[in-house]
Amino acid sequence: MSSQHARVAIVDDDASVRKALSLLLDVYSYEVETYGSAAEFLQSLRKGVPQCLIVDLQMPEMTGLELQHRLACDGFNIPTIVITGHDEVAAQERCRSAGAKAYLHKPIQEDTLIAAIGAATA
Question: Considering only the top CATH level, what class is 3-121?
Answer without folding.
Answer: alpha beta
